[in-house]
Amino acid sequence: MSDSSPPPARSVVITLFAVAACAVVGASALTVAAVANAGPGRGGPVADGDRTSPTPRTSSTRAAGPPICLIGSWRSAEEQSMVKFYTDADPILFTSSGRRYEFRPDGTGVERQDNVVLTGSHQGNELRIVANGTVEFKWSATDKQITYLARTATTITYSFYDQRGLLSTVPQEVKPDLNEVDDYACEGTQAVETNPTGYRALWVRTDGSGVYG
Q: Is 96:76 a contact under the CB 8 Å cutoff?
């Protein structure tokens, strides 16, 4: 989830996602018809003018769920993203690993960052961003794209360091209209996520929870 990266620049996610694509198919229709029987000697025939036609049978169809391939727990093994580290310089390429995700079948999810370190460089000096906290989000997906619909709650903070030491610590903000769309491909225990901002991530499954497709 690219928007999980430091607020100054959107990155993160998945780009995890070139491996094959998975889709889920689900939906069944259940129809119940009830027939009333008056039984022997109970009343007589109904007059022609009162006899109505049968009510059309209706069916209910359950909407298809999210791709099974995504549901479950993941850890980022490799990530790269472009971050606006300095206000007076172009975005800088950062690499990292170790973010953990859980995608639930109800369209909600959680990301956890425990001292996840993003590293980059500028004019020969090492730059670091240290991320900590958790974020709750809503998501949906097709067989090729994942949409992060909203960031509903977050405790994540990003601490920015260069050769001078700690420059600032920035809290992530709740964003109900996030709507970040990333491309992904997953197969078995790995997935790759990418987006046009330069974000790319490789995810590997963990044994936390979920369906392992």
A: yes
- Name the fold adopted by 68-205: Lipocalin (2.40.128)
- Going from N- to C-terminal start, the domains of the chain cover 68-205
Spatial separation of the C-alpha atoms in residues 23 and 185, rounded to whole Å: 10
E strands, the chain, where? 72-83, 92-96, 100-103, 108-122, 125-141, 145-154, 157-162, 165-171, 180-187, 190-194, 200-205
Where does residue 213 rank: exposed (0-12), middle (13-18), buried (19+ CB within 10 A)?
middle
Tokens of 54: 């049968």
Supply 203's token pair. 């995810």
Q: pLDDT tens-digit profile of 80-135? A: 999 999 999 999 999 999 999 999 999 999 999 999 999 999 999 999 999 999 99
Q: Which amino acid is at 104?
A: R
User: Which ranges in 60-211 belong to alpha helices (H)?
Assistant: none
Q: In degrees to the nearest 10, what's the CA dihedral of 195, 201, 205, 206?
A: -120
Neighbours of 205 (CB within 10 A): 18
Q: Burial code of 114-138, b = ≥16 C-beta within 10 A, e = fewer? A: eebbbebeeeeeebbbbbebebebb
Token pair in block for residue 171: 């809290």
Read off the tokens for 96.
């990292």
Does pTM surpass 0.85? Answer: no
Exposed e or buried b per residue across 35-63, where buried means at least 16 C-beta atoms within 10 angstroms of its C-beta: eeeeeeeeeeeeeeeeeeeeeeeeeeeee
